[in-house]
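Researcher: Let's run the pair from yesterday's discussion. Sequence first, then tokens, for each.
Model: Starting with the first of the pair.
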Amino acid sequence: MKLRGALLCTVLATASAQLLADSKLPDTLAKIKPGIVAVGTYLPKRSPRANFLGTGFVVGAGNLVITNAHVVPESLDRDHLEEIAIFYRQADEERMQLATEVASDKAHDLAVLKISDPLPALKLGDTAAVREGQVYAFTGYPIGMVLGLYPVTHRGMVSAITPNVIPSIKSGQINPKVLKRLDEPYKVFQLDATAYPGNSGSPVYDADDGQVIAVIDKVFVQESKESVLSHPSGITYAIPIVHVENLLKNLH
């Protein structure tokens, strides 16, 4: 009976903590949304001028943006003045800033962009404190700017802390990039949440205080890339924020 009572207390305490976090999420979201941006490119004579590629979030003194390395284009149409850019909403107006890539960590699929006009920065949390079973929120642009510059928020539980290699069922799926990850594995957070390609670069944060513990990196696709919108797998992977901290240290 004592064991049952202890288990019941644990369950009730966990449920109470989750309810408290849920009640704080609206305030947390209002505080951090101004620092969550869309990332893409801007070309003056293109229609549309903006090309959405992913999500990013502001850190540091407000002039640095974190996103995935795969979100940043490897080449730009410089002849026609194409530039990396971020897009966001401020005071009910859609705004844009040109950005420059100042650091990249392709091994962990991270990149740092620099902007000229500072935006509200998000605080970074403690990767070591993350445990399986904890629930976090993430905010980004799941289907780009189709619905306008209005970031969308989801929640997901850390269902596993696992190596960054998704098992390949067929030998034909194994390529040099996968083999490199097998040689140099690192842990990522697997979330039981539905994210989409546009969520790449979204911050995963504590609903209680808004501290970022990871960056959305990829979505497990169960069929084809084309069907990811209609048949999401509900499995998402995120890069622990410690790798962002290491990348930022190298900037100084």
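Model: Moving on to the second of the pair.
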Amino acid sequence: MDILLDILQRLGLAVLQLAANPLYYVAVVLIGWQYRWQMTMERRLFHVRIHGAADRLWRTVLWGIIGGLAVSVAMAFVGAGLQPSAILIVWIVSLLAMLVRSRFACMAYAVGVAGIVQAIVSYVPESVWPGGALHAIADAVRRLDIVAMLVIVALLHLLEAGYIRWFGRSGAGPLFYEGKRGKIIGGYQFQQFWPVPLFLLVPLAGGGHALPWTPLMDAGAWAQGWTILAFPVLIGFSERTVTRLPKDKTAATSGLLLVYSLLMLVLALLSYLWQPLTIAASVLCIVLHEAVIWISRWDESRRGPLFVHGSQGLKILAVIPRSPAEELGIVAGEIIHKVNGSKVLTKEQLHHTLTSSSAFCKMEIINLEGQVKFVQRALYSGEHHQLGLILAPDDDAQYYAADKESNLFTSLKAKWSGLPRSESKGYEEM
């Protein structure tokens, strides 16, 4: 009972420590800003709100806390803990990396860089380093537990893989992009992040009771005492697809991250068993993460665009939630072949057929399997032009999103100024 009360007391102190950490609130604010920006763009382009910012934010924070507790429990039984200096170094490296590319804020890059720098510093005799702050920094780098940091990277990416598979497509936003040949095509932008508070056990001499269980790693390090430190991190992904449905893209991304996390767990275990492998594992921590991104982009490049109109009819890019189209069972990726018996190949033809019969709508839809299905519904006043369908772009599209990597400053500038092309008209919604 005493050890349980001790754990709860130290966990309570760690929660207070997290509550006083401004980095956690910065992460929550940035995520909320991202969601708000997406909602603003949807209203600006489609004249309707597809995603709600406040609802998504509280769910994101809740699932971040749940995931953080799960990873923290796993780390407690693995026995890999971090020193306060390691937490500070990871945050500093991550923030500096964001100035180069926003995606470099991922902990995998910070840990990989830390492992490489530690290997370099370890080969330099201590007598070479001058005294003062530089010597203190070099000493802190030497004492980093890179193996523990690799385990955390693996577990966080395992959590991220699960969250992307379960929730990734819920945050997918439809956009227009410039295709390979300059034609505007439809696609989806994924922006989904979770602020994850970690509560990590840290060995501490004179820290009271020994752990009531024997961790898998460094079992002797916990005999003299321990404490709990709060460590907020940010996980998530930012991708786009013009060749897959959101559910297929998130499944592919989740699978790649699952493989990456399992490989990093194996590399961390091998590094624990044979210390010289740590430098190789640190390099692979970065290289394999870049490979995940490269494979995703290569898969996109080898496929043809999905959201373009063809000879069968009009391709549906997105369906607005709680709209008449959703009630009819229409989903993104399907094709509107006929409306009220007339074949439609343009938005003008669709609008004409809907307005010519203002009381009823019967549609022939080519579903994702290539089969024809019939849907019908009575139309009510004001609904004839607002079924809730967002169609793939045509030659008259006036907006498209830039497809290029950015750093922290350019990302904030883009969100402040909106889309890259000047305003003249938004996307049409039927």
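Researcher: Give me one sentence on the second I can quote.
Model: The two ends are 64 Å apart (CA to CA).
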